Amino acid sequence: MPQSVSADGGRTWTYSASPFPPISSGQRLVLRRLREGPILLLSFTSADRRQPRAHGLDFRDSEGGSFVGYGLYAALSFDDGSTWPVRRLVTPGEGEYDGGAWTGQFQAAPDQAEPAGYLAATQSPDGVIHLLSSRLHYRFNLAWLRAAPPPPARTP
C-alpha cells in the first residue's frame, strides 16, 4: 500500500511503500486520528477478498509471541504515521458470519477476520470506536486495541 508524506504542510510530497499490503475492489480502508492522539488505520491483509489467506500480517500475542492473521486489522501510529507499533486483528468472534454485499459469508476465528468490506468509522465522545463494514458493526476502544490478544490455538 502506498504512503504519501509531506514535511511542509502539503506543498510537496514524497511517496513510498507503506508496511501494509494493498487492498482492492470490495475493500475500503479507514484512516483517522483518534481523540487520544494516535492515528488509526483499519484495513485488510489480502487484496483478494475471495482468497483471504493469500496474504497475512504478523501480530503480537499476550504471551510475547506472534502469529499470522488474516482479514480485517487495526494499526496504531503514535508518531504521525512514521511507525505502526500496534497491530490487532479485528474479529467478530468465531464461526460463520454474513458480511453482506460483496463480502458474503466468511469463517471467523482468532486468526481470521472479515476478508473485505466498505469500512467507515467514527469515535463517540465516550472513546468507543464504531466501525461499520458492509454489514457488521464492531465496537472497541483504544485500550482494547493496545492489548495483545491471547495466542490463537495451535493445531498439532
Task: Write structural notes for this entry.
The structure is a single chain. It is built from one helix and 15 strands, in the order βββββββββββββββα. The protein is mainly β. The protein has one domain (17-146). The chain has a four-stranded antiparallel beta sheet with strand order 4-5-8-9, with no helix packed on it. It has a three-stranded antiparallel beta sheet with strand order 13-14-15. It has a two-stranded antiparallel ribbon with strand order 1-2. Strand 1 and strand 2 (14-17) form a beta hairpin. The longest helix is centred in the C-terminal third of the chain and has 5 residues, at 142-146. It is globular. The protein starts with a strand and ends in a 10-residue tail after the last helix. The mean pLDDT is 93.
- Label the overall shape: globular
**Which structural class is indicated by helix and strand composition?**
mainly beta
Low-confidence stretches: none
Helicity, in percent?
A: under 10%
How large is the radius of gyration? 15 Å
Strand content: 35-45%
The topology string of helices and strands comes to EEEEEEEEEEEEEEEH
Query: What summary fits the major beta sheet?
Result: 4 strands, antiparallel
**Count of the domains:** 1
First-last Cα distance: 34 Å
Strand order of the largest sheet: 4-5-8-9
Q: What number is the mean pLDDT?
A: 93
Count of DSSP helices? 1
Number of strands: 15
Quick overview of this protein structure:
The chain is mainly beta and 156 residues long. The protein has one helix spanning 142-146; strands at residues 2-5, 14-17, 27-28, 30-33, 39-44, 57-60, 66-69, 72-77, 86-89, 95-98, 105-108, 117-118, 120-123, 129-132, 137-140.
